[in-house]
Amino acid sequence: MSEGAMNMPDLPSTSWAVLGILSFESDLSGYDVKRWADQSLAFFYWAPSQSQIYTELRRLERLELATSRVEQTHVAKSRRVYRITAQGQAAIRAWADELEPDPMVLKNSHILRVWAAHNGDMGRLCDELRAYRDAAIEKAAAASAHARGAGRDSAWRFSGIALEWSERFYRDEATRIDWLVDRLRSER
């Protein structure tokens, strides 16, 4: 492990996600960070809430991984925008290259309901699963649209690949749910 990795602050995943968004080297407000998270991270990790984002931006600034300034947008309006620092770039590089990823945790409340299906209404469960499948198909389409958008900017090429993965994941999830509903029907 490099010296940079050993000296890195112990940050939660939310901090790394926000720092990663800032690493695209644009001045961004908390609102902008939320919008970027909703259009990318939400498809394969999660999208932090607005309050989480502002908490993380303040933490990153306190740790000198980001800086902020007030930008006058109109005569009576202003907004605070954030930018990654050189120290922040070094930290995100070390995080990306050297730190072990968090273990994946599979937590699917729909499958938990299947596990306990002997306690409920099978028809209702199948209806809920079909609605979940439909939502997965919609999410796949949205991820695909955002992947195409990311493909327009070479700085976002890897984000686009992550979004392509997300599209495949949600389409595969829809296929798994179709299988699951058929399997549950065969158990009636």
Short description:
This protein is mainly alpha-helical and 188 residues long. The protein has eight helices and two strands; from the N terminus they run ααααββαααα. It has two domains: 3-98, Winged helix-like DNA-binding domain superfamily/Winged helix DNA-binding domain (Arc Repressor Mutant, subunit A, Orthogonal Bundle); 109-186.
Give your account of this protein's structure.
- There is one protein chain.
- This protein is mostly helical.
- The chain contains 8 helices and 2 strands, in the order H-H-H-H-E-E-H-H-H-H.
- The chain has helices at residues 3-6, 13-22, 30-39, 50-62, 86-98, 109-115, 122-150, 157-186; strands at 66-72, 78-84.
- A two-stranded antiparallel ribbon has the order 1-2.
- A hairpin with a 5-residue loop joins strand 1 and strand 2.
- The radius of gyration is 20 Å and the shape is elongated.
- The model has no long low-confidence stretch (mean pLDDT 90).
Q: Per DSSP, what share of the residues sits in E-state strands of 2 or more residues?
A: 5-15%
Under CATH, the homologous superfamily of the largest domain reads: Winged helix-like DNA-binding domain superfamily/Winged helix DNA-binding domain
Ends: how far apart?
A: 55 Å
**What letter string, H or E per element, gives the SSE order?**
HHHHEEHHHH
Per CATH, the architecture of the largest domain is: Orthogonal Bundle
**Main pleated-sheet profile:** 2 strands, antiparallel
CATH topology of the largest domain: Arc Repressor Mutant, subunit A
- Alpha plus pi helix count: 8
Helix/strand class: mainly alpha
Give the tally of β-strands. 2
The largest beta-sheet arranges its strands as 1-2
CATH class of the largest domain: Mainly Alpha
Radius of gyration: 20 Å
What coarse outline follows from CA principal-axis ratios? elongated
What does the average pLDDT come to? Answer: 90
What is the percent of helical residues?
A: 55-70%
Overall number of domains:
2
- Low-pLDDT runs: none
